[in-house]
Amino acid sequence: MIVVRGALSLALGLCAGAARASLDEVEQCQAIPDEIVFFGPSAEARPPRRVERYGAETRTLAANPEGYAGHGMSHFRNCSARPAGRRMQVLRFSLRSEGYFFPGVVNHIAIGLRSRLTGFAPGVHSGNERFQGRGIVIGSIAGGWPVEDLCPGPFPLVQPETWGRQLGVTRLWGQATAGENHCGPGLKDGQWYRFIVKADDASLRYTVYDDKGHMLRDHRFADVLTRAPDRDEIRGNSGYFVAVMCADADASCRSVPTWRLQLKDFKVSWQ
Questions:
Q1: Where are the domains of the chain?
Q2: Cys staple from 259: which of 73, 100, 141, 167, with CB 3.0 to 4.6 Å?
Q3: Is domain 19-270 annotated with CATH 1.20.120.160?
């Protein structure tokens, strides 16, 4: 297993799809943080923001410096160093929330692998997006999806999702999609959880542990819904993203109470 962490990965030979990548996309092959902390609006009237730690270096950034409308905070890389012959991208992290998840609010985090992001579609339930990938959603989802794609509460919980630019590719995987139960465990605010998410050319696997190391869910499924050209392009993608959505009308995360999301021991690797 090759772990991608810390050093810049700007060499074109290491960046999947570099031959067709624009200069902007190549520049996204940057250092991967060890820790990411998202902050909601604070009691001191500070706006939402995120802090990223790279070893001894700490960077405080605007919540959404990419300027995409229709979502709150995000951290993404459009490529990670992918050694030749490796097809399974792996993301490991520990997550703890403070005040972000509470009843009746559709706050959730989207975490995608094998991704390539150029923007978010204005309508988050349109069924097609301006990005691709497969990963998980942590939190609460309501409305705009077929009922069979929604996992039952209690919220927050873990649920797989795939994203694509073609109509119908963006899809939650719930109790009835493809005839299986893909729903993950419910989580609690204020507790640490350990995640391992793996995505290859045609499938996703996610594993969740509690703070005592007990496995809560280990689930793998084949993505039978993604069609060409999304399916073919995802095979060449090596990026990832973490997007934080809130209950505001524009998902900007400015209208909800003070909260914090911490992702530590953040590692991206290839197998």
A1: 19-270
A2: 100
A3: no
Q: Which two tokens stand for residue 164?
A: 């694509």
Facing residues of 172 across strands? Answer: 161
Structure tokens at 34: 């060890």
* Sheet with 131-139, edge to edge strand ranges: 73-77, 239-245, 108-117, 131-139, 157-163, 171-172
Structure tokens at 206: 């996610």
Angle, CA 166 vertex, CA 161 and CA 169 arms, to 5°: 25
For CA atoms 37, 90, 162, 233, the dihedral sign is positive
Model pLDDT for residues 108-149, shown as the tens digit of each residue: 899 999 998 765 544 444 445 567 899 999 987 765 566 667
Q: Are 96 and 199 in contact (CB under 8 A)?
A: no
Q: Distance between terminal CA atoms of the chain?
A: 5
Cβ neighbour number for residue 258 with a 10 Å cutoff: 14
* Encoded amino acid at 238, one letter: S
Q: Do 198 and 114 touch, CB atoms closer than 8 A?
A: no
pTM summary value: 0.82
Nearest CA to 137 out of 114, 159, 116 is that of 159
- Using alpha carbons, select from 211, 210, 143, 208 the residue that is nearest to residue 182: 208
What is the predicted pLDDT for the residue at 21?
38
pLDDT tens sequence across 152-194: 777 788 999 888 877 667 778 887 666 688 999 999 999 999 9
Tokens of 24: 């902007």
Structure tokens of 111? 């975490």
